[in-house]
Amino acid sequence: MPEKLFELQKIDGIWIFKQNSMSLIILFKMRSATQEELKQRAKQNEISSGEEEVLSDSDEDCDPENYNFLMSQIDLAALTYGIVQEDQKGQEINLRERVSTQQLKQEVNHVNQHISGNHQNITSVPNPIKLLVSKQKRRYNYNGFNLDLTYITEKIIAMGFPAENIESIYRNSMQDVRRFFDSVHPGHYKVYNLCEERKYDHSNFNQVAEFPFQDHQAPTFSLIYEFCLDLDYWLKLHEKNVAGIHCKAGKGRTGVMICCYMLYARQFTNAYDSMRYYGMIRTKNKKGVTIPSQIRYIFYFEKALNNKWVPNDMPNKQVELVKIRVIPVPNVNFFGGCGPWFRIQNKDKEYSSKNQFSVKEYKLEPYIEFKLKDIILQGDVMLQFLNQGFLSSNQKLFQAWFNCDFFDYTGILMIDKFMLDKACKDKSGKTFQKDFRIELHVVEVNQENKSFNSVHNNSNFQSTHKNFGF
After folding, report:
1. Residue 394 belongs to a domain with what CATH number?
2. Which among 90, 172, 315, 414 has the fewest CB atoms less than 10 Å away?
3. Residues annotated as part of the active site
């Protein structure tokens, strides 16, 4: 075990980093923000009374504001920990300028005014079933069309899946979508399909590109980068070129890729503003990308751009996962407790805890602990916990995607409830208590520095530090 292994302990609500015999007190509580705190930060961010963004009362997954609060606390920990770690001295973490809500609204209004000024104001009576399915997403109602389709920028369009046959009754009709592009952007459009589960004949559109990943999952880091390269090339090929980007609903997966591209194109300098803008312009309730793992990957992409990383020249860190703790025991089964097991997907490998442990029921224990052997991880990782109960052995509890290249330490990776997919939906705490979290104890296998190519100019860039992230 390397000498740099440190422990993270919570004493009276204060997190303490312990390295060998030395302790460093971090004077804050690493926890989910209360609604009052979120409102106060919203006020400081120039959200006026009556215009406050919906923050933590969402009935969906997670929101960028709550995530950003935790990120700021983690970054503070990194800066403080840098006092005792020589290679972190003087680093500036998460000090990027942010855009006010008013400025974001002006950007939204600018795009909307451009659309209304350049498209015929011929509205169409909406299909009530389609309105119901599109929920809070903003629809396109010009030129005689009424589609689940939104101009995110003047050249980037987010839309729902172009469906055929019976499905076209409640989703965008393939025929209507094709007619829209052929009449509004003839010869200058390209459609991007992000669905892994859904494909169609490419002859339906002018050009089609596929960058597939599963619904409610995060894309791999390399897929994000390849998408940005392809989209950037297409949009710059001709000044009239536009891109229509869709998954199934045209919100989550679509939002991840569009937010990352807006960072790549430097429309925004930080993930937080990119997500806020997307939520504002795509939806009426300002909830765009809401799945925690997808949010995490947008922040990853921001850090990669700032470090001038590209997929072929990532750090390629290998970490050994030596222990997992689940704190406290989820309340899943009829009589309380749960029978947890987990699986890990990493590239072409899959690991199941059932290969090492028999499933055991937990009830009154303070936590659940798995001591692991020979689990070496690299790149994108999906960790999923399931429950073996009376009725089902595969009841999904929660999951998290993460990328090992964004670990910068050997120790404990903590993920709170509100940043765990599915668990974050339990607002009442019936299944997962308010302070629920998982701890991943990791040891880095390779710690060598590498030379990275610039994302933007391919110049050599020597990385001398490691990002603090999760």
Report:
1. 2.60.40.1110
2. 90
3. 247
